[in-house]
Amino acid sequence: MCLGIVGLGYVGLTLAIAAADSGFKVYGTEINPKILASLRDNHAHFHETGLDHLITEHNGKNFHSSGKFPKGTKFDAFIITVGTPLMAGTHEPNFGYIRQAVQSIREVYDGSQLVILRSTVSAGTTRNVVIPFLRDMCGKPEVFVSMCPERTVEGRAIEELTHLPQIISGNNSEALGMAEDIFTRITPSVLRAGSLEEAELAKLFCNTYRDINFAVGNAFCLSAQTFGIDGINVIRLANEGYSRANIAAPGFVAGPCLEKDAYILTHNMKECPSRDFILSGRNINSSLEDAAAEWVMHKANGKVIALSGMAFKGKPETSDLRGSPSVNIARKLYAMGCELRLHDFAAYPDEMDDLGLGRACRTLREACEGADALMILNNHEKYSGITREDLGSEDITVLDAWQVCGKITGTFTLGNMLLPGTEGGAE
Ligand SMILES: NC(=O)c1ccc[n+]([C@@H]2O[C@H](COP(=O)([O-])OP(=O)(O)OC[C@H]3O[C@@H](n4cnc5c(N)ncnc54)[C@H](O)[C@@H]3O)[C@@H](O)[C@H]2O)c1
């Protein structure tokens, strides 16, 4: 079978390579020339365990990448994997890339092939945006369309693509059958959604559930702090030996998906009480970033701040800076007039420099030199071995946001990072 994948970003490239490894012939298109150049050298443009090895194995054989699909090739299906970001400065999703991606298959699409939407979209987008567009393009009243959302975690995508149950859907039984035929060759089990909208919503529920779940821990932690009490200790007490409480530890929550999916879910939702509930989770999680920035300004004597853990998460390791809470915190501190040094164990220094917020440092020691405070902002496993000696400073204020720096003494955490005005405790 032959697949055409539109977009070779995180989702498109990992799926393309997993499909090539499962025996599909895969043609991927990408509009970013840097990504195509890096693929010519057998490299992904991001860090993903096992991916470069598989690219090397399949490049030029089962996997081909270019700016356009080759004419004359007989495709069985196209998979749209382009981004669905929020419009700049708003919380409204931008589905413009999806329209352009559908448009890009015009020369090789005749209406008989399956078109699978894999990007995360608001309920109804596949039916109301993609299907009419395809009908117009091929001039046929009946087209075959599926919504099969991506649910892998960055850093373990290759492993999860071949293990997670795949949610599939179709606008008719033929489309559903075609989607099933494709995904059962890649993953061991598929889950048939009752409609395109069920598949769209299931994906949004997965991510929004995580967002809200983390928000509970963050909300409790911040509320404990208004009493001058370490919220992490209280959450530990509440959870210990008590299976009915499983409160998440506090932590920053964002990344390229969680920062937007609650907005994509609520974007076209009819008025109902769950809207405020869902969005309050997002607000709590982003308010923790404000709290951390305010705290470090209050605590550190000067304004030189080292930020380490710039990628949006440390475990599984990723180089991805998109939607990173650490970048959001850096932006806030930069706007407050701080001088920043940026460090990460996996993110690429040139991408950190390109943020224009501060100098990218190759080592933690370099980042800490002359700094008043160090904020450890993700949970990369390399922090566990770091000592104060490694930082080159005995008295630098350290916020260990994920409690991963067991060997550094006298650190602050998100639990005892008391906000200005709360140090005195409850009145
Ligand atoms: N990153 C993840 O782990 C993840 C997980 C689940 C779902 N998703 C969802 O999947 C979608 C894609 O996410 P992503 O992280 O892969 O985004 P991405 O930005 O990394 O990848 C999209 C790629 O598509 C390319 N592109 C855009 N328009 C194109 C066109 N017309 N033709 C060819 N290429 C085009 C872009 O240049 C980019 O490289 C989003 O809706 C996202 O919410 C992402």
Summarize the model shown:
Helices cover 39% and strands 12% of the residues. The protein has 427 residues and is α/β, with parallel strands linked by helices.
Written description of the protein model:
The protein folds into two domains: 2-194, 3-Layer(aba) Sandwich (Rossmann fold); 208-400, 3-Layer(aba) Sandwich (Rossmann fold), CATH 3.40.50.720. The model has no long low-confidence stretch (mean pLDDT 95). It has helices at 10-21, 33-40, 51-58, 96-103, 125-138, 157-161, 173-183, 196-225, 231-239, 255-258, 261-266, 274-299, 325-335, 349-353, 364-368, 388-391; strands at 2-6, 25-29, 63-66, 77-80, 114-117, 144-147, 166-168, 190-192, 304-308, 339-343, 359-360, 373-376, 397-400. The chain is α/β, with parallel strands linked by helices and 427 residues long. A six-stranded parallel β-sheet has the order 3-2-1-4-5-6, with helices on both faces.
